[in-house]
Automatic annotation (TrEMBL), chain A:
The keyword Protease applies. Its main location: cytoplasm. The lineage of its organism: Eukaryota, Metazoa, Chordata, Craniata, Vertebrata. It comes from Fundulus heteroclitus (Killifish). Component of the proteasome, a multicatalytic proteinase complex which is characterized by its ability to cleave peptides with Arg, Phe, Tyr, Leu, and Glu adjacent to the leaving group at neutral or slightly basic pH. The proteasome has an ATP-dependent proteolytic activity. Residues 236-272 form the Proteasome beta subunit C-terminal domain. SUPFAM superfamilies: N-terminal nucleophile aminohydrolases (Ntn hydrolases) (SSF56235). This is Proteasome subunit beta.
From TrEMBL, chain B:
It is found in: Cytoplasm; Nucleus. This is Proteasome subunit beta. One of its GO terms (biological process) is proteolysis involved in protein catabolic process. The keyword Kinase does not apply. It comes from Fundulus heteroclitus (Killifish). Component of the proteasome, a multicatalytic proteinase complex which is characterized by its ability to cleave peptides with Arg, Phe, Tyr, Leu, and Glu adjacent to the leaving group at neutral or slightly basic pH. The proteasome has an ATP-dependent proteolytic activity.
Length: 278, 237
């Protein structure tokens, strides 16, 4: 039997704010002691996008920071939404990731419902309606860019739900550094190679001049022919070469006790996964 | 049933008062980042610092070293609030001159350390926001490192890291110089070449993970011959 909604229960969308007052009191008492409430990891980013003659070029740096310590030296900030629509995310890392994944699902469902390829405007509208519903508590700023039947478009959406439609956009903590490069050299209808270089230079400005951005430049070039995802398009910084050897000989770590418990297991499958140690 | 808590009355939501009145006070301090490191050897001392000066998410300068030469046998590294670093080093220079003129001799590293402690404690209730590390040679010509907290507590060490990446560097030095947490390793005394190589390597690692550390590394090597300076480039992002 179908369960219908109890007509006396209010339908609450978004977050439940019942505990906000309790949390505020707890946080103020915590800050007096030695413990701090855990803060959400922000990406402290530089993301940029521009419209060129053949399509859209999106760019992002690859550093994720936890306060002022680098948490990830090579994270991906350009997310897939639809075959020809990609999105760069800045702000709280988890919020940007979840928002774009929800958009990707919704776009797939929409495509199946309407039988049409998606429009960039549709993605932007759904994204802004969702972020507005969360009243800025979802701290993700995104740049949505792509090519659809009406042409190449670029939008930016802010955490509270406002959006801008412009020929070039930058967001994140390095936005000021990146937009200065765009303001200097942007021209409408640029050639693709020149546009790639310009976006790369804008992200590089963020990487060098902003402490929250760093490591490599990722680019995503979207044209009506297809998408080129250029991960690690440029690596303007290199890790210094260490001169000493820091490997430990076996036996350096003291073994205090040893307990061996034989388990009867069979090896079914063996696979090697390389770790990113650089 | 309708929850009575979230409603202040028919058609009204209760006001949520998250914090009290918000007052934005002027802060006399700023944090300008930077890391300093000092290592003492048998007959040498090394004081090293990065050269990045930052504030918030921006960089003020990529060439602002934090090691200051005090005498022919003493170098001080200061990180924290740059304004207080500059004033403190000026005050130390003046006091060194006064001592020289009254006592007709240069201050020794130990004497400078003791003096710095009293200068810092003199401002106990409006401290100099500076993390100091003094590196130099003592009267016997052996390497000496003195590390301080902002209000003047100090002690003599073999090695010490201070500043923004200190928490990343200190455990590594404890392991490589102090041979801590290692079994069956020969405790070889630290040579000057090994120490310089170690200092360069630890700063390369600190620049990877600390956003405030980078640009270049300034190393001052203090020996009885004098003070030798080297500059090595670091990551600029």
């Amino acid at each position: 039997m179908l369960h219908t909604l109890n007509p006396c229960q209010e339908q609450n969308g978004g977050f439940c704010f019942e505990n906000s007052r309790r949390n505020a009191v707890l946080e103020s008492s915590l800050s007096e002691g030695t413990n701090k409430a855990p803060s959400a990891r922000k990406t402290g980013t530089t993301i940029a996008g521009m419209v060129c003659k053949d399509g859209v070029v999106l760019g992002a740096d690859t550093r994720a920071t936890d306060d002022m310590v680098v948490a990830d030296k090579n994270c991906m900030k350009i997310h897939y939404i639809a075959p020809k629509i990609y999105c760069c995310g800045a702000g709280v890392a988890a919020d940007a990731e979840m928002a774009t994944q929800i958009m990707a699902s919704n776009v797939e469902l929409h495509m199946l419902n309407t039988g049409r390829p998606p429009l960039v405007a549709m993605v932007t509208r759904q994204l802004k309606q969702m972020l507005f519903r969360y009243q800025g508590h979802m701290g993700s700023s995104v740049i949505v860019g792509g090519v659809d039947v009406t042409g190449a478009h670029l939008y930016s959406v802010y955490p509270h739900g406002s959006y801008d439609k412009l020929p070039f956009l930058t967001m994140g903590s390095g936005a000021a550094a990146a937009v200065s490069v765009f303001e200097d050299r942007f021209k409408p209808n640029m050639e693709l190679e020149e546009a790639k270089k310009l976006v790369r230079d804008a992200i590089a400005a963020g990487i060098f001049c902003d402490l929250g951005s760093g490591s490599n430049v990722d680019l995503c070039v979207i044209t009506d022919v297809g998408v080129q995802f250029l991960r690690g398009y440029d690596k303007p910084t290199a890790k210094g070469q260490r001169e000493g050897q820091y490997r430990y000989k076996p036996g350096t770590t003291a073994v205090l006790t040893k307990t061996e418990t034989p388990l009867s297991l069979d090896v079914v499958d063996e696979c090697v996964q390389l770790m990113d140690t650089e | 049933m309708l929850s009575a808590q979230s409603f202040g009355g028919p058609g009204k939501m209760k006001e949520y008062h998250y914090t009290g009145a918000v007052e934005n006070r002027f802060s006399p301090y700023a944090f300008n980042g930077g890391t300093v490191l000092a290592v003492a050897g048998e007959d040498f001392a090394i004081v090293a610092s990065d050269t990045r000066l930052s504030e918030g998410y921006s960089i003020h300068s990529r060439d602002s070293p934090k090691c200051y030469k005090l005498t022919d046998t003493t170098v001080i590294g200061c990180s924290g609030f740059h304004g207080d670093c500059l004033t403190l080093t000026k005050i130390i220079d003046a006091r060194l001159k006064m001592y020289k003129h009254s006592n007709n001799k240069t201050m020794t590293s130990g004497a400078i350390a003791a003096m710095l402690s009293t200068i810092l404690y003199g401002r106990r209730f409006f401290p100099y926001y500076v993390y100091n590390i003094i590196g130099g040679l003592d009267e016997e010509g052996k390497g000496a490192v003195y590390s301080f907290d902002p209000v003047g507590s100090y002690q003599r060490d073999t090695y010490k890291a201070g500043g923004s990446a200190s928490a990343m560097l200190q455990p590594l030095l404890d392991n490589q110089i102090g041979f801590k947490n290692m079994e069956g390793v020969q405790h070889v005394p630290l040579t000057q070449e090994k120490a310089v190589q170690l200092v360069k390597d630890v700063f390369i690692s600190a620049a990877e993970r600390d956003v405030y550390t980078g640009d270049a590394l300034r190393i001052c090597i203090v020996t009885k011959e004098g003070i030798n300076e080297q500059t090595i480039p670091l990551r600029k992002d």
